[in-house]
Write a structure and sequence with these properties.
There is one protein chain. By secondary structure, the protein is an alpha+beta fold. It contains 4 helices and 8 strands. Strands 4-3-7-8 form a 4-stranded antiparallel β-sheet, with helices on one face. Strands 1-2 form a two-stranded antiparallel sheet. Helix 2 runs antiparallel to helix 4. The mean pLDDT is 90.
Amino acid sequence: MEVETIIYKAKDGRRFYDPLECEQYEKTLGVINNSVGNLVQLLEEKDPNKYIFGLVLIKNSDGYSVNMRATFCVDEKLEDYVNPNELTKEQRYLIYTIGDLLNSLRKQDQDAPCQWWIVYSDDIAMKMCAMMANFNSECWPKQ
């Protein structure tokens, strides 16, 4: 039996005969659209101290992971133990920021397909906020 030449295909479709050359070439490619790296790139343009409420779905080789981050008031949970009115605003909220989400996403495979829905704000009560979202069909089974 004879083995013919093995061809290595880069993420953008370019073909190589040498796996090391293919790997080096892939490192020069930009960020893949709708990937974890793409979301990291978008979030790095924002203030890391902005409060967030959001959901990020990541398709991994072994399934899915869901990153849910939320900033919200916990006064009702605190009332049995303390008077929430005597606490600072920061003590009355469960807080997640863009920086917290970035720290989590940087630990993921940057090329993994993902989709997200994120609301962010300078205001801890999320009164004035903005939203960023995307849908990625790569995250869902083909029917």
